[in-house]
Amino acid sequence: MPPPASSIAVRAEALVKTFGSTRALDGVDLEIPAGTVLGLLGPNGAGKTTTVRILTTLLRPDSGRAFVAGHDVVADPDAVRRSIGLSGQYAAVDEHLTGYENLYMVGRLYGKNRTDAAARARELLARFRLQDSADRPAKTYSGGMRRRLDLAGALVAEPAVVVLDEPTTGLDPRGRLDTWEVIGELVADGATVLLTTQYLEEADQLADKIFVIDHGKVIADGTADQLKAQVGGERLEIVVGEPGELAAVAQVLSEVGSDEPVTEDHQRRVHVKVDTGPKALVEALRRLDQQSVTVLDVALHRPTLDDVFLSLTGHSAEDEPTAEPEGKSKGRKAKSR
């Protein structure tokens, strides 16, 4: 029997998926409470897109179970498709139709009558700042405009669960902020959002809870603050005026820090993890002043999600390991008609 749909909008249990000799998912468990945003983080090839494709009925798991809006993704895929909106990593729009026609068509495919489909299309075109281009063929749109149109298409049916696979890829800063605002509005209206992203500040800004996935397994989960607390401490950074002063800074930071300092010669910067925060900063500056070291800049940083990512996976989120075997998610919406 499926789990109750009232409190948990999405649940995956021990999902396994292999492609040849590659085990893309190796027992993934996750759940998303209704009306929240779950951020799924991981490097390329970690299993994020495979998870998304299973939850949206585009792939069948080899083993394990998954429920979306109370429906089994294998036993009742049509009901799942009626409950979700999906925006993949790349905009999937009909380039020969206008922006308005793209959204109107999706509305009709989801069963809206002509009046409601037209009204919803115009509403979303305005929300995504596309109303001035509504009657132009999508093939004349810029990449960012096509991306926004694709996102709008995922929302036409006002789905209970919205799956956004790297939704701001290719968007300019304004487009990203607009998308963040839309996601906030969706949740305020009661929708549940599964967000995969490699923009760590995006997960930090939007996600109520974050799952970090690597090599097909969930290796950590929690709120952004909980994950940062796992890294522990703060990072003290000092930038000096002369390269020859770096050795002295490194020595001082090795004495006040809780780890080995890291020297970045090209930026004339040394940083180290510290447990005593401001106390370590004051002590480091006192010792450097005694040695007449010219300090140009000093900063004390809390751990970031990038620090978490590096600590958990062994590399930063900027790195891009081999992509997942099945390729990238390109579909816009899962349709039942």
UniProtKB/TrEMBL annotation:
Gene Ontology BP annotations: daunorubicin transport; doxorubicin transport; response to antibiotic
Keyword Protein transport among UniProt keywords: no
Main location: membrane
Domain ABC transporter: 10-240
Bilayer disposition of the protein: Peripheral membrane protein
Region (Disordered): 312-337
Keyword terms: Antibiotic resistance, ATP-binding, Cell membrane, Membrane, Nucleotide-binding, Translocase, Transport
Location of this chain's protein in the cell: Cell membrane
Keyword Electron transport: no
Annotated GO MF terms: ATP binding; ATP hydrolysis activity
GO cellular component, one term: plasma membrane
Matches recorded under Gene3D superfamilies: P-loop containing nucleotide triphosphate hydrolases
Family designation: Belongs to the ABC transporter superfamily. Drug exporter-1 (DrugE1) (TC 3.A.1.105) family.
NCBIfam families reported in the protein's UniProt record: drrA
Official protein name in the record: ABC-2 type transport system ATP-binding protein
Organism: Actinokineospora iranica
